[in-house]
Amino acid sequence: MNFKMQDKQNQLVERISDTHLIVGVDIAQQLHVARAVNFRGIVVGDPLTFENNEDGFIKLVNWIQDLKRLKNLDATIVGMEPTGHYWLNLSKWLYNLNIEVVTVNPHLVKRNKENRDNTQSKSDKKDALVIADMVKNGYYSFIRPTSESFEKLRVLMSNRDVIVKRLVMSINQINRWVDVVFPELRQVFKDVSCKGAIATLRLFPTPNEISSMEPLDVMSGWKSLMKRQPGLKKAQLLISLAKSSIGTGQALDAYKFHLEQLLEEYDLVVKQLERVEQQVKEALNQIPFVKKLLMIKGISEISLAGILGEAV
User: Residue 120 above 70 pLDDT?
Assistant: First the structure.
């Protein structure tokens, strides 16, 4: 017999016994709000507002213990929305105290707001109560603890994503600069971010500078920055296009200064990307089964790190 989604929800509901205190926490940047219900959904105690620090977390635990003693309950399950990153520290702190923590789907929280007061109104206290109700009804997911190696991969890959976005932004800005000052450069180098194009922009960025040069001088400049440099024909084409460039001839000093800063940003991002990818590879080497997975055709170290960082 096929396992149905309803069977899973029934199992989650059955885990909530009459000895459970079900706590819902509405997560925010500085102040969280907690509400509690019993297994029937009856509200237990008053709302609690607590700070996002250790004192606040201790306040939450003491509040939970007081309610459990008041209602003769001996088990606790705490639910929260996994939105943003503010929930992470609280969930780990509670987990280390052997308090069960689960998450609820943020979209379902919005859809369940009418269950309490038949309105779509929003407040921190109401949201916390809705979360507690969802846990009581089995609409929750377990949080799996992450080992040091896999959490390291997750952090590094998240860092890499940010750096890659900055790299794309940097290249886009360089492309825009080329469009304005020397659009013909693309007839010599199809990719403005390739080594030859970047070297050209470093050495002689404006058409005015290139048009007065000899091909051998251009090649000599390339040679100073690259082990494998473009040939004579490209140097001749570059000079020819520079002489008839339609790029702007005004405010060239300002444009050159702008390009210097763009290239500085580009160099920084490229260096950071290299460093974080090296860290990713070192983190992968600490996981025993990674070598076998890398034997699968089409899987690179970076793609595998992304999979393991999010899936495990």
Answer: no
Min mean pLDDT across 53-67, 121-135, 281-295 is at 121-135
Band of residue 1 on the pLDDT scale cut at 50, 70, 90: very low
pTM confidence score: 0.74
Query: Domains in the chain, ordered, with CATH?
Result: 19-142 (3.30.420.40), 148-311 (1.10.287)
- Tens digits of residue pLDDT in 136-151: 999 999 887 777 888 8
What is the identity of the amino acid at 47? Answer: P
- Whole-angstrom CA distances from 106 to 77, 111, 173 are 18, 9, 37
